[in-house]
């Protein structure tokens, strides 16, 4: 059986999504809006054969993300991340550089031993400003809009993997916190690979916060 949307054989809703192996919890009432069956998917692993041709509500093709929304492509996600890094990174660097750059001094204290000590005066406040800006950007926008400006430009949304809602403040904060692990090579490589190979294209920070990234429905 091909994956797709079929008439709900259980007659609880108008249509239900079949992933090729069994019935899922993704359903539609026929109005073009998809959502998750509150009963879950356990009762629908097996069931009567579908009736009628496969179809896609609201023109959505392929497997649903949350509430039937199509998952964002890997390249769209990488492009959005690149845009976000420019949008938040460049202004922050300019501001912190202008405020604290003149106060950062590098002092060579021992040329004989070849040892150099770097004295970063006001480095702490500069780092604090950077973290506050990133917190407001990556957490605030997700909670209020479901997307950062970079994702908005590409047409993506971050939603709860189960209910399709915008992330809660706690989930958005945890999602942002996990991204700091990407300064290490292995977590960074793993999360990039996961965008391409994970069935729901969830990265490490998506798994931690139970979120997915979907294409915005216009």
Helix and strand topology:
Elements lengths: L3 E4 L7 E4 L4 E6 L5 E3 L14 E5 L18 H27 L3 E7 L4 E6 L2 H23 L3 H6 L1 E5 L8 H10 L6 H13 L6 H6 L1 E5 L3
Antiparallel strand pairs: 1-2, 1-5, 2-3, 3-4, 6-7, 8-9
GO cellular component, one term: plasma membrane
Membrane topology: Multi-pass membrane protein
Keywords: Cell membrane, Membrane, Transmembrane, Transmembrane helix
Write a brief caption for the model.
This protein has helices at residues 74-100, 123-145, 149-154, 169-178, 185-197, 204-209; strands at 4-7, 15-18, 23-28, 34-36, 51-55, 104-110, 115-120, 156-160, 211-215.
Distance between the termini: 30 Å
Treating each run of at least 4 consecutive H or I residues as one helix, how many helices?
Answer: 6
Q: What is the strand content?
A: 15-25%
Q: How do the helices and strands follow one another from N- to C-terminus?
A: EEEEEHEEHHEHHHE
Report the average pLDDT across residues.
77
**Uncertain runs:** 42-63, 107-111
Kindly give the count of domains. Answer: 2
What fraction, in percent, of the residue positions are helical? 25-40%
Strand order of the main beta sheet, please? Answer: 4-3-2-1-5
Shape, per Cα inertia axes? elongated
Question: Rounded to an integer, what's the Rg over CA atoms?
Answer: 23 Å
Largest sheet: 5 strands, antiparallel
Structural class, judged by helices and strands?
Answer: alpha+beta
β-strand number: 9
InterPro entries: DUF2510, Pra-immunoreactive, RDD
Membrane topology: Multi-pass membrane protein
Biased composition (Low complexity): 53-66
Subcellular location: Cell membrane
């Amino acid at each position: 059986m091909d994956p797709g949307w079929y008439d709900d054989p259980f007659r609880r809703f108008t249509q239900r999504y079949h992933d090729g192996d069994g019935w899922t919890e993704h359903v539609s009432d026929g109005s073009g809006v998809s959502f998750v069956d509150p009963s879950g998917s356990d009762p629908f692993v097996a069931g009567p054969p579908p009736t009628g041709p496969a179809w896609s509500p609201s023109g959505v093709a392929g497997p649903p993300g949350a509430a039937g929304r199509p998952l964002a492509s890997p390249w769209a996600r990488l492009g959005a991340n690149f845009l976000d890094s420019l949008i938040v990174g460049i202004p922050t660097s300019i501001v912190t550089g202008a405020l604290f750059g003149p106060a950062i001094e590098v002092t060579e204290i021992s040329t004989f031993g070849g040892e150099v000590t770097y004295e970063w005066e006001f480095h702490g406040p500069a780092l604090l400003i950077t973290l506050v800006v990133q917190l407001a950007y990556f957490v605030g926008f997700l909670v209020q809009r479901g997307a950062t400006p970079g994702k908005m430009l590409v047409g993506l949304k971050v939603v709860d993997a189960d209910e399709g809602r915008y992330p809660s403040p706690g989930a958005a904060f945890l999602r942002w916190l996990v991204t700091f692990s990407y300064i290490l090579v292995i977590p960074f490589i793993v999360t990039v690979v996961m965008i391409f190979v994970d069935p729901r294209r969830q990265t490490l920070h998506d798994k931690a916060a139970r979120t997915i990234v979907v294409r915005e429905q216009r």
